[in-house]
Amino acid sequence: MSLAAPFAAALLRDVAVAPAFVRLPRLRTSVGGEDGSGDEPVFRHWGPRIRARSASAGGGRASLAVSPLRWRKEGGSSAKRGCAALSSGNGADSRRVSGGDFVVVSFYRFVRVENPEEEVAKHLAFLKDLDIHGRIYLNEQGINAQYSGPLADARSYFEWLREDDRFSDILIQISPALSGHAFPKLKVQFKPLVQVDGGIAHLPLLNTSMRATPLEPSEWKKRVLALSRSRDASSGNVDSDCIILDLRNGYEWDIGHFQGARRPEVDCFRSTSFGLSETEVNDSDPLADVNKEKTDVLMYCTGGIRCDVYSTILRKKGFKRLYTLKGGVSHYLENEGPVEWVGNLFLFDSRLSLPPAAYNPRSATQTCDLQHAIKNEKFAKCYLCGSVVQELRHRNCANLDCNLLFLCCPDCVSSFRGCCCSTCMTAPRLRPVLPGHQRYEKWHLYRDLEIQPS
């Protein structure tokens, strides 16, 4: 019996079962496709899986094949269910899982890539025979990858990558997959590693001295605990010589963050501009009036890449004492647990969020509590009625043309039929109300489908 079995059992107990669908004759023509642009999967929908078929030896375009959709059976999913609790890091220890368990892997590295399009073709050629879904971006500045797959295939890819001297010591982060693949398909693309207004091609990302100084999770814990004691001693006043800065999107913050952290009142990291204005002082800017020479700015994000990018921007603006949480929150939770962290960690895949216990089980035989309920925390509120939500996971508005990501209590889900407002309830392209906090699939799957009454 795999040592991962207790973790899998805990995960599978609470995986919501999809409703039964019945295929109906097509009664109308298409009302238009969905926008596949953008960089955040919360605004995407499931689609057919794309697999690499071949790549030319000369580094030309690799051909892609679209695999047929696997239809969901009544009462369940066609995907293989499984999970694992893993140690990550440079060693990527996999002793606690079996080869059939599904895992999610993420990593990034800023390094000079001379021929990124050839690099894309090379990666596609290697991945063509592996059961890998996810997003892998390459360009002249390096690589940024998040993908899911069976453990054996997931390991094969990052071990192959580490054979390249440029990536030999890359930090690999591995987390449990809740139900088969966490991504709908595989995309390996030549594109910017992070989406920021104005782009990142001009930023000195390859110059480590221009990026923030990385702090190991243990050092970060010492710093945040010291700040916590300082707040307690001064009745909540924040130490003006040190601030904790959250560089994530608003919806990420809503379900979990570090105690005492600050963030601007913006919804999306892509358009973040705090700390950059030379002429205006915005009351919501946590870096307004900060002493650029003397203030320690401790930045964090999910996996670390956004902090590396934004710290180069702040460095160019004169900020001297910049620090980042190495490996991001996921690496911290794995190594230190939820010390000074409240809530769950938002994820850009089908899992939507994970509690700290998923990253740092106390033992291989411990039943991993992956319930998404809040424990003695009341910071997360229903978007519609303001009541405390009991599950720290978002849902998308059932109105396809809105698709707002929001927190919602069960009563409002029922009353508003999965929509974020009464206006959306009468929209022309309404999708069914999904049980639990699932992800919507492509519109054409709902256009001609009807949910069987319960």
UniProtKB/TrEMBL annotation:
Domain Rhodanese: 238-341
Pfam families membership: Rhodanese, Rhodanese_C, UPF0176_N
Cross-referenced InterPro entries: Rhodanese-like_dom, Rhodanese-like_dom_sf, Rhodanese_C, TrhO, TRHO_N
PROSITE patterns the UniProt entry points to: RHODANESE_3
Gene3D superfamilies noted in UniProt: 3.30.70.100, Rhodanese-like domain
The protein, known as: Rhodanese domain-containing protein
Originating organism: Eucalyptus globulus
Organismal lineage: Eukaryota, Viridiplantae, Streptophyta, Embryophyta, Tracheophyta
